[in-house]
Amino acid sequence: MSFEHDGIKQVEKEELKELLKNQDQAPIIIDVRELDEYEEGHIPGLPLIPMSNFPNIVDQLDKEQSYLFVCRSGGRSQNVAMFLQNQGFKDVSNYYGGMLAWDGEVKSGAEWIVKDVKEIKGMS
């Protein structure tokens, strides 16, 4: 069951698993960790945009789109969500507990390193 922290919706593990199953209605889910962390292990199918890149790409993101952010423990992803909310984004949320709480499938390697945000639906 989701809850709110500092004005940001927090998504818990079981809800994230459901969102991953029904990706047609799901928000765009983005891993915001660093490349080495992502390569070590990430949720399959999630793109990587490191937290430090967001100030550079914020103008390329669709403010009407729904986003959910994932990191190691939920701290950096919370900060990305708060940053975007401060930039006028309405529907941003955080995966509470991050990869430390994740017990689902994990993939290693550089599966999807975003070089151009146009690669991700909902980003122009």
From TrEMBL:
Residues spanning the signal sequence: none
Pfam entry (one): Rhodanese
Gene3D superfamilies from the UniProt entry: Rhodanese-like domain
Top-level taxon in the UniProt lineage: Bacteria
Ranges for domain Rhodanese: 23-111
InterPro entries xrefs: GlpE_sulfurtransferase, Rhodanese-like_dom, Rhodanese-like_dom_sf
Name of this chain's protein: Rhodanese domain-containing protein
Lineage summary: Bacteria, Bacillati, Bacillota, Bacilli, Bacillales
